[in-house]
Amino acid sequence: MGKGNGRQFPALAKAATGIGGFDEITGGGLPRGRTALVAGSAGAGKTLFGIEFIYRGVTQYGEPGVIVAFEETENELAENVASLGFDLKDLIKRKQLVLDFVRVERSEIEETGEYDLEALFIRLGHAIEQVKAKRVLLDTIEALFAALPNQGILRAELRRLFRWLKERGITAVITAERGEGALTRHGLEEYVSDCVVLLDHRVTEQVSTRRLRVVKYRGSQHGTNEYPFLIDRTGISVLPITSLGLNHKALNERVSTGIAALDAMLGGEGFFRGSSILVSGTPGSGKTSLAAHFVDAACKRGEGCLYFSFEESEHQIIRNMRSIGIDLGRWVERGLLRFHSARPHIQGLESHLALMLKQIGEFDPAAVVIDPVTNLAEVGTTHEASTMWIRLVDSLKSHGITAMFASLTSDQEHPEMSEAHISSLMDSWILLRNLESNGERNRGLYILKSRGMAHSNQIREFVLTNQGAQLCEVYTGTAGVLTGTARVAQEARERAENRARQQEIGRKQRELETKRQAMEAQIAALRAAFASESAEVEQMVSNARLADQAVNETMAILSQLRSGEAKNGPIGESKGGGNNGGNKKNGGSGRGQDERRRPTAS
Amino acid sequence: MAAVVEDRTSGAARQHPKLWQLRLYVAGQTPKCLTAFANLKKICEEHLAGEYEIEIIDLIEQPQLAAGDQILAIPSLVRKLPEPVRKIIGDLSNTERVLVGLDLREMG
């Protein structure tokens, strides 16, 4: 016995554990054909890790297993893990699993000379034989240290046991209690040189977080970080964070914000799909309302949405959003929207992250809302919080999920400063501010940044109506930024001024018209005066002509009367001839001159 | 592999109210197992003559029996009767401790 048919495995052959995330950080699981040590303090989850390894081995990888329990009976073990959906009894019935409880009581044992632990080997060998097991869990073999007084024999036998398992090509997990200043209380890590996994359950500021670290993995690359893990109704999930990088694809598709005016501010089409949006604002500035619009729009497109709420319950949000005309309840009913509400202090940041990633993985939404991120970050330190956001954002981006993060800012002068650690991760940043003036508060919205798209630089007033949120142009002028009633008043004032101006113009126009009419009247009067004057002149001319004629006729008559006295004529003629020599040619014209002179003279 | 080593007192001893029922677990005929059996035999003859029966179980042949008495170490001696059950591990070379283990000191 004990001489196994030593099968050889390639140096890096691995046995997948089926534990969510663990296989990713170890590049495939535990070393095949070797023994791995899982160490941790009480309640760290060692036994569960081992059992999940065995259970998944049977159910997912067709590798039968053996569980040797030193601390709990078969029934206790089976009951403990039944709540996680691990039906060990069924596996036993199907001859895929042997569960052997080894009870050792120090008080019942008397050492009386030399011995070895061959019986344990025989039991184990028998169990392995029964189901042709490939995987073995010894939980926890340290119990032997308490039961057997002779440590020398025990250590030699353990060394032999691990060699024996290796020779048989069994992939084994042994669990051990965490020791003071050492990995394990009894130095089991000395015997297990291939793979050591450390589980930790730490409580910081009354918040507990489970963490896992691969301390050692001979001949294999592995993540060396501490990874948070969760124990929930499906077993252990480890968060593989380092497997994520900055290589997610950037999608060109755009998704609506749910508010047409906001879409317009974002280049007319809304956010990029898969981008991360930060909505920050002071209390009551409308972050949740904005998020509700975003969710509503996504659901209307038939896309799944996951809403993580750390402040309000699902019902509270649904009720509140109904008041602005958004019915989120119908999307919940149709299975498009899922809420996850929890108080931030219920668990550590890492556990929150793990839980969120798990939910995202299960539901596979197109959009995610986290409302708000701020009080969640309070659970851990700033550093922890920022690494968590990096992990979360990376994970969301790699899944192409559009995410909206609501962030509560204090009412201070530069809200931009308070969120330096998260804002740099975000693609778009919408700031909601309370604008206080003239004894009232109004909501202002503006886009602080939006990578990769032209966006408005305007501050808009964000008005919540029972028809949803609306964005109004705010009054920005010499009087500063005016919102709310001040804006309305200003608008009224402007309208009044406008009207006054219009009236003034009308009045001026009318005045001008009157003036024009007056001018025309004057022109007409002048023209009339002129006409009458000219008529008078013409009258005078014709009168004069008639008078001339009459004179001429009189003269003619007179000359006729003085006929024979021709000498008189030349006398008159010599007078005119002395002035103008030209008169010789045209005696008539000379006479004409005389004629003209005469009326003026008269 | 040798047959199960067995030694029984007379059938009449079964009805004996003070019958000691001892079970020795071995794994083949290793030196330790043989030593243990020899030591047990000697002690029983000295202290329990005519009042005992020894059952030898070879786990190599019957591995399934190891679980019943929660046997880990080889050789292991189990006192089935009188109750309570007592367990002694080792090759029984330390007679003093065997007697303590079997609760034979007071009787002696």
CATH topology of chain B: Glutaredoxin
Distance between the termini of chain A: 173 Å
Strand order of the largest sheet of chain A: 5-4-7-8-3-9-10-11-12
Number of strands of chain A: 25
Assign an overall shape of chain A. rod-shaped
Which strand-content bin applies to the residues of chain A?
A: 15-25%
Chain-averaged pLDDT of chain A = 81
If classified by CATH, what would the architecture of chain B be? 3-Layer(aba) Sandwich
Low-confidence stretches of chain A: 1-9, 569-597
Strands ordered across the widest β-sheet of chain B: 1-3-2-4-5
**Count of extended strands of chain B:** 5
What would you give as the CATH superfamily of the largest domain in chain A?
Answer: P-loop containing nucleotide triphosphate hydrolases
CATH class of the largest domain in chain A: Alpha Beta
User: Pair with the most extensive interface?
Assistant: A-B, 24 and 35 residues
Number of helices of chain A: 18
- Overall pLDDT of chain B, averaged? 79
The figure for the number of domains of chain B is 1
Estimated radius of gyration of chain B: 13 Å
